[in-house]
Amino acid sequence: MKIAIALFEQVTALDAVGPYEVLQRLPDAEVLFVGHQRGEIRTDNGFLGLTIDHEFEDVPSPEVLLIPGGIGTRALVHDGTILNWIREAHQTSRFTTSVCTGSLLLGAAGILKGLKATTHFAARPLLEKYGAEPSNQRVVQQGKVITAAGVSSGIDMALRLAELLTDPTTAKALQLMIEYDPQPPHDAGALEKVDPAVLRRAQELSRDKH
Known about the structure:
Layout (H helix, E strand, L loop, with lengths): L1 E5 L6 H11 L6 E6 L3 E4 L6 E4 L1 E2 L8 E4 L5 H4 L3 H13 L2 E5 L2 H7 L7 E2 L15 E2 L4 E4 L2 E4 L4 H13 L2 H10 L18 H14 L1
Parallel strand pairs: 1-2, 1-6, 2-5, 6-7, 7-11, 8-9
Antiparallel strand pairs: 3-4, 10-11
Helix pairs in contact: 1-5, 5-6
């Protein structure tokens, strides 16, 4: 079973690597990192390099395609190469998935029209531009299309996907293997849970980063 994870300049690392840690443990899974051309790309802050092993044209029909997010998606919503690959791969995929602003690329490819979808809270209103119904849920499934909210939600999405591809017991075993049992020190992981001061600080940190 081929699982294709797209990589591009200024991708958010955990959007891709979080689901990878789950999906690469699936029985008979082959996880392929695909992109415009083979070689290293840098993640959104430039600190971390990830490697593209296959060009889009080399992996035309994966069973699962996963589009991560990151600041790099802003330019890619106008990039015919990745959008055409998403459209064509979606025609034969078992599941088409995204994490964070990767859903904007699914939208730009025309896949989210009339569907409920989610993304990072800061980009949620942009989904309407592509005919999608924005949701504040952490993971949204509409048929074979599964979108996840920001960054860490990709792990939740991948565990849901693992269950759909196998069975609940296997998905639980994968969760145990990565010891995914979140117990954060603060309950501030969703926009609806924070006060204005926290939101302002998050916006400041985001501006400083980019």
